[in-house]
């Protein structure tokens, strides 16, 4: 579902002339942009392995004169920051994209319990290529294609001789995909979002008035996003030596808590469908539909079988819109569990990230700038993005959390073309000029 946005005031924006548009368009080289996206996309950059892609971005920014610096919680997972402009009193605009891309772990001990072998073997996880004028490979769309677009947009402004009054920050961050420290996977090696844009905001030496999370949105825009909570639901029982088992007709009386999981899953399935309807949150800036899914189940140890298990843990991911907090959701789930008569249980939130939205008045100049740029480049009004893009975590949440009006906006998500990259770079450059002004 998409909708046209209400016409927003642009009185606070700096003028962008037809000559500016022509000079910016002429300064964007489609082959250079495509090559940049593919080269970046083909650098292996799973969460925790972002160093190579970070070094590439740093070197490119240095070569192009954007004064890069690396700021990281660890030396191998830095945030990369470049700057352009700042010669006057214009507003500052920050672009951000993430360096990591989702993929299997390529460790059989982990992947064999999550993926089919043919899924692990898909080349799109780590390889990017151009075929039939379409850019293939998950790293292009998520998220080094949009990253390449704002990098080339900054270069186009400079090549066109447009000096910005406000500062333009170009940032590439680790850890937006994940992971999270869970159970035995603890410590800094398993940190995700905490060392990315969140760390950048506090330690990166950036002072943004507005921010754009450059990610694929099919050219739509949203200024709200969901967070999430990962609940661990533990059912408890007692060990029972298999030869000594006496089977009762009632499955709920079985000493092994694994036998009660079926009833729990059915109840959670009903809860999930109802939850997303009751808690959907719609504004002019987006429609957020918080989804629920069981991510993992753990119980016992298969190599020491013979007496069942006393503990069964189920891990439930629950979306949180910008108007929700975690405690009421926990109470609702606890009430559900008590009513199922599953015996002893424990419910604990292992990860909590609330959703956020931009102040509706404060974000208007940024939305107006994007609207004018989109209309100029695409020949149609800026539309509100599909609900999927306002129902997930993206790093615009970090800036909206800290009262910096932020949106997410970018290329098509599925198999973008080189022309899509060019159009997005033009939109980013024109938006930056309207926000930052010239000096």
Write a short abstract of this structure.
The protein has 439 residues and is of the alpha+beta class. It contains twelve helices and 19 strands. The protein has a seven-stranded mixed sheet with strand order 2-3-7-4-8-19-9, with helices on both faces. Strands 14-15-11-16 form a four-stranded antiparallel sheet, with helices on one face. A two-stranded antiparallel sheet has the order 1-18.
Task: Note the gap between the termini.
Answer: 40 Å
CATH architect. name of the largest domain? 3-Layer(aba) Sandwich
- CATH fold-level assignment of the largest domain: Aminopeptidase
Principal-axis shape: elongated
Structural class given helices, strands, pairing? alpha+beta
Number of strands: 19
* Spans where pLDDT lies below 50 across 5 or more residues: none
Work out the radius of gyration: 24 Å
If you average the pLDDT, what whole number results? 95
Largest sheet: 7 strands, mixed
Strand content: 15-25%
How many domains? The number is 2
Number of helices: 12
What CATH first level of the largest domain would be assigned? Answer: Alpha Beta
The percent of residues in helical segments reads 25-40%
Kindly report the spatial arrangement of strands forming the biggest sheet.
2-3-7-4-8-19-9
The CATH superfamily of the largest domain turns out to be Zn peptidases
